[in-house]
Design brief:
InterPro entries: AP_endonuc_1, AP_endonuclease_F1_BS, Endo/exonu/phosph_ase_sf, Endo/exonuclease/phosphatase, ExoIII-like. It comes from Gordonia asplenii. Keywords: Hydrolase, Magnesium, Manganese, Metal-binding. The protein has six helices and 14 strands. The mean pLDDT is 95.
């Protein structure tokens, strides 16, 4: 079973890239984030194309913001929109944003609960949105706990797990995505028995999944690894390959994220990682401080 996750940063302009990518990579299960469509609009845009390729789909959308989806050729059962008792924003007791969807995929002993998640960004350290992010992660941990061994959490977690997961740690000091509370919240989910399968497979390699659109950052490999696949204890031993499909970030009108791919039981392309293809002109790590997009002027 091939599982992939991809923050497409608005699915409508990405359709000319998404459909050929599905045909090329042939994933069995796809987790999409930032679809930025309502459920009705998602179905109108992609329903026929997905059906012709053998995919069922489920979508949790809210129009122009957020939005997550699951596409599956191997079943899509017990679909759950959102998190159990998940927080709202800006009011904690308000409606949940469209940031999570999960379902059972596969069959028999191979069945897993797959989550497609889009963790809140956090915006600025100690802001209301930052505390919302931490609360959201705590609810994700509680949601997955009853079936953690047979779960896959896939998506944009908006956290670089360690300093090795950013191009230059000094550039990120004082910003979200790298603070101790964020990393501890992610670590609490992993501590339940979930493995970061890309990092587990490539412990010492430079691996990123997101590159800002500014000229040169992608080609210089000045990125972050914030798109993860976490596998429960029963799923992790089945991993045969885990890699970032850097090709999905190349070319015309790309998302600023690349797809992340994990193969269970069989690896059709072999053990091809960590990034496919590798960057051709990477800048030396820490070579000159780069101003981040969220940095104050």
């Amino acid at each position: 079973m091939r599982i992939a996750t991809w923050n497409v940063n608005s699915v409508t302009p990405r359709v000319p890239r998404l459909l050929p990518w599905l045909d090329q990579r042939q994933p069995d299960v796809v987790c999409l984030q930032e679809t930025k469509l309502s459920a009705e609009a998602f179905g109108e845009l992609l329903g026929d194309e997905l059906a012709s390729r053998g995919y069922e789909f489920a979508h949790n959308g809210q129009g122009q913001w957020n939005g997550v989806a699951l596409l599956s050729k191997v079943g899509l059962d017990d679909v759950r929109h959102g998190l159990l008792d998940g927080p709202g924003y800006p009011q904690a007791d308000g409606p949940q944003e469209a940031r999570a969807i999960s379902a059972l995929c596969g069959s028999g002993d191979e069945q897993v609960r797959v989550y497609s998640i889009y963790v809140p960004n956090g915006r600025e350290v100690e802001s209301d949105h930052y505390h919302y992010k931490l609360a959201w992660l705590a609810k994700l941990r509680a949601d997955v706990e009853p079936h953690v061994a047979t779960s896959l959490i896939c998506g944009d977690v908006n956290i670089a797990p360690t300093d090795a997961d950013v191009f230059d740690p000094a550039s990120y000091v004082g910003h979200t995505h790298v603070t101790a509370p964020e990393r501890e919240a992610l670590g609490a989910i992993e501590a339940q028995g979930m493995a970061d399968v890309v990092r587990r497979r490539w412990p010492d390699q430079r691996v990123f999944s997101y590159w800002d659109y500014r000229a040169g950052m992608f080609h210089k490999d000045l990125g972050m690894r914030i798109d993860l696949i976490l596998a429960g204890e029963s799923v992790t031993p089945r991993v045969r390959a885990a890699w970032v499909d850097r090709q999905s970030r190349k070319g015309t009108k790309p998302s600023d994220h690349a797809a992340v791919v994990v193969d269970l039981d069989v690896a059709p392309d072999g053990d091809v990682g960590p990034m496919v293809p590798p960057p051709s002109n990477p800048a030396r790590r820490g070579a000159g401080k780069v101003k981040l997009p969220q940095a104050a002027d």
